[in-house]
Amino acid sequence: MWLLAAQLEIKQSNLSGARAILRKAIECSPQRCYAWCKDAELERSLNETERARAIFELRIAQPALDMPELLRKEYIGFEIAEGEFERTRQLYGRLLVRTKHLKMCGSATHCFKHLPLKRYNNKETSFRSIGNFVSEGSEGMDVLSMSLGGGSRHYYRDIIAIGAFKDMEMGVFVLCSAGNSGPTKASLANVAPWIMTVGAETLDRDFLAYAVLGNGKKVNGVSLYSGKGMGEQMVEGVNPRVEKGQVVKEVGRVGMLLGNTAESGEELVADSHLLPAVAVGMKIGNVIREYLKMDKRPMAALTFGGTVLNVKPSPVVSAFSSRGPNMVTPQILKPDVIGPGVNIFAGWSGEFGPTGLETIQPKC
């Protein structure tokens, strides 16, 4: 609710009001990572670079709070976008103290028997630039895969492109994410010719769920809700869709219908929700809104259908996957390929569960 209120104030050009709402959200719940990021984003949009940087630093400086992955990525992306490469290098050094990286093996035969662990931190390794970080970090690798965004820029200013070029010279195959800024045109990242740029696509399966409205109309959606909540000990984190469910749960409600905005259209993401919830596309969302206007006591019954295979059409480029054209070198088509990037099952650490909220127990 606080985010919607802040966005409304911004649309009405009441920037001081938006600031006040975001600061209040941070004051009430300082672990609310998303609020810190939105506050910094607002300041940056007003060309208040130092204010935005101070917000990130203030969040990091709180020793009692760990720094979620979203804030790390946002802060690094902020410095890269500002062209502050020395600051970015220093920031990477600070974050790498607690980061472990697996060193990939050149031979698959011996890879699993002798998989060494390589640790980088600001005491053991000093990187003169992020370009050196990319190339030095790939020593002994055959393939280097990076999921980093930040937009595209001329190659001589693109630290990832510079580092990847050094890797290419050493025979390392480099592939990078196209970015998650779609469906906006010309929103690609990592467009250098020596990088394989990978976009995201949907799968040939859905995780269906249904809602029967009080007027008898049945609508389809998706959900990964499986009958049991993800626990009570959590704080808000990196998934606004799931956070909405937490708000619904906190006010005593038992279920949620989540409709897409025009930006996401009909593409559905099956989230692991905190309570029974069904995500629906924009068209069905509009149908539900009309029903809410007509019925004084609206209600709905939710059911969950599990996995459905052989969905058509598939694959389809995901709505969030960054789009071309390549603004740096228009003659080179980017992205090069697309791969599965929506509703992917994966293991989760103890710090982050599948909801995107910080949890106590690991989730698989």
TrEMBL record:
<keyword id="KW-0378">Hydrolase</keyword>
<dbReference type="InterPro" id="IPR011990">
    <property type="entry name" value="TPR-like_helical_dom_sf"/>
</dbReference>
<keyword id="KW-0645">Protease</keyword>
<dbReference type="GO" id="GO:0006508">
    <property type="term" value="P:proteolysis"/>
</dbReference>
<dbReference type="InterPro" id="IPR036852">
    <property type="entry name" value="Peptidase_S8/S53_dom_sf"/>
</dbReference>
<protein>
    <submittedName>
        <fullName>Subtilisin-like protease SBT1.8</fullName>
    </submittedName>
</protein>
<dbReference type="InterPro" id="IPR000209">
    <property type="entry name" value="Peptidase_S8/S53_dom"/>
</dbReference>
<dbReference type="GO" id="GO:0004252">
    <property type="term" value="F:serine-type endopeptidase activity"/>
</dbReference>
<comment type="similarity">
    <text>Belongs to the peptidase S8 family.</text>
</comment>
<feature type="domain" description="Peptidase S8/S53">
    <location>
        <begin position="120"/>
        <end position="347"/>
    </location>
</feature>
<keyword id="KW-0732">Signal</keyword>
<dbReference type="Pfam" id="PF00082">
    <property type="entry name" value="Peptidase_S8"/>
</dbReference>
<dbReference type="InterPro" id="IPR045051">
    <property type="entry name" value="SBT"/>
</dbReference>
